Amino acid sequence: MAGDLAFFYVFAAVAVGTSLLVIGQRNPIYSVLLLIASFGALAGLYVLLDAPFVAVTQIIVYAGAIMVLFLFVVMLLNAPREEPIDPERLVEPQGARWFGALLAVFLLVELGWAVARGSRALFGRASFDSVRVEQLSSVRFIGTVLYSDYAFAFEVTSILILVAMVGAVLLARRHEKEV
Amino acid sequence: MIPIVVAQIALLLFVFFMLLNSAAVMVYMERKVAALIQQRYGPYLVGPHGVLQPLADIVKLLFKEELRPKAADRYLFVLAPIISAAAAFAAFAVIPFGGDTTFFGLLEEPVPLQVADVNVAVLVIFAVASMSVYGIVLAGWSSNSKYSLLGALRSSAQMISYELSYGLALASVLVVAGSLSLRDIVDTQAGYWWGFIPKWSIFLQPIGFFVFLTAGIAETNRAPFDFPEAEQELVAGYHTEYSSMSFAMFFLAEYVNMVTVSAVATDLFLGGWHGPFLPESWGWIWFLIKLSGLLFFYIWIRWTLPRYRYDQLMAFGWKVLLPLAVINLLLTSAGVLYFGR
Amino acid sequence: MATLNDYLVLSAVLFTIGAAGVFLRRNLITILLAVEIMLNAVNLTFVAFGRFHGSVDGQIIVFFVMTVAAAEAAVGLAIVIAMFRHRGTLNPEAFKTLKW
User: Left if phi > 0, otherwise alpha if psi is -120 to 50, otherwise beta: which for C88?
Assistant: First the structure.
């Protein structure tokens, strides 16, 4: 469908554009907000991939919970704008610069070649067929697999969350003696 | 014959304008009910019984000067009310408010009375609700004012705390209905037990309903949980620095959020558009009646109960409401396993 | 209809942006955000491959990645707060006491 392709390009452009701006400007609060927009675009891509449950989870967990955490920290620390780098420190041996630039170009070409050739060789034309779409987007089926095949991993994750919670509280706590 | 697409666009616009309208009606009702409770008249000068008062308010707000504090962050200050209002309206898109209808024979095929039928509707509402936190936090931060920041921090902490109970109360209904689509959930509530008790989830889930409504009131920042705008302490909370239309957008978002929470409660717990006496195609009347009842409850409770203290609010949310919701979910799951659906 | 290749290219681009962010930015919070971009790029490949092979395992891995990302963000931000209290800056170059 042509509509799908158009949506793909719109969401992809938004995701790439906002991600570039996240790392491209110095105000951390704008970075956080732009990353939320990027996550929204990714959620749109998940819908195109017949994974509405992942899309909604992306918004709830990533955009709604993790990013709120970031926003809170940025606000609480009143995080300052990043200072531009000291120009004196930028002076480096010319050879290293040239080598770095050359390496970057080489890696980019290699990556492009690998993605273009390798994936085509592996997956043929690699268009998505419409088999089992019904099952893929069904929350019930995802739940069944999650709580049977992945039950152990699921339980272990809960311990991870607990450890992270205790760790975060312990780390961010103000120690009376030291201060 | 009108094609389906036109009908759906018309439906979309209709829902949008009705939501705008509902905010105006709610403002009027709020003032009238408040006056009734406090033995006053309330607005009575503009139009018969003051019914045109909301219109006058809107005109006043439109023509006021738009002020922006010098130290405010220019972009975020403008963006915050837009996020708030957009999130409030977006959530209503997935809420069904009536059965299939052909609009009195205008259409060949019946269309559902709903803007978008999504099979993960309940989660979409949850996701959009989690987005509305940003409007408030950004408003508070970008205003660069103490009161705004304190109001925003309180509000977001409150919303995040109560979102858990809200979600767990939703989950217990989902377990009973066995679906994530609001339309399916409403349809499982059609019919009667023993011929006279309607099969509404509220009778299966009284605790769930209590938790949902309490958390819903806290989510929409209404009294007795209206800390973000506690006048006596914080002037007006996160929208202290806002004026004119941007203030109106926060105001609008608050009322539309109330309507949305009530509509979700109607669909999940009160059987949606199912009710006695009326044929299926007139079900939206039942929906409106139930919705109005819940909205009246909102206003009633606001003018009856005093505000909590902030620590009491947090203690209530984490130590009472959340355990209650967890126990309710466990009991419900056990019941579904034992008795079947 | 977008093909699997399109999704893989997009994911590679996003991952590169994230990696570049980690190298370029000198703000601990932005660096953590760049890590999130990389995680999301990988999530996208998981879902795309899952869709391609007609299996839900890709989606399930994404849930695990999200949980780990949440844990990572919580602990990471706690460390950032502790470090900010210690030095009063978010510049990673200020924390080089262990460097010889």
Answer: left
